[in-house]
């Protein structure tokens, strides 16, 4: 029986690797939306606490350009793990919110890759529990 997770290699771009994931966070920090767009599959699903799932590359980019509550910041990555078509990254974000308040929080992202891009992303944030 064939592996149901196999991808069509005839349309695959460069494989997702640690350097490309690190570059994605650099693009977010720099506000380089053109570079960020290259990281995402056209049909990406981004799950982020406090939001309905963001569906599609254009919707995710609109979130970053217009809705994200972080005005500026820098991600400090502590770890990256890649295995086949899955991956995880964790670290911390230091920055300023759109209302001017400082932000400092830990995060972890999990990924599913397809054709060398992020097909699904789920973010988790280390914040006080209710």
Automatic annotation (TrEMBL):
Tell me where the signal peptide lies: none
Q: Where in this chain does the record put each SnoaL-like domain?
A: 23-119
Q: Please tell me the species this chain comes from.
A: Actinomadura adrarensis
Protein name as catalogued: Nuclear transport factor 2 family protein
Give one Pfam family, short name only.
Answer: SnoaL_2
InterPro entries with a match to the protein in the record: NTF2-like_dom_sf, SnoaL-like
Per its UniProt record, what SUPFAM superfamilies does this chain match? Answer: NTF2-like
Q: Which domain of life is it from?
A: Bacteria
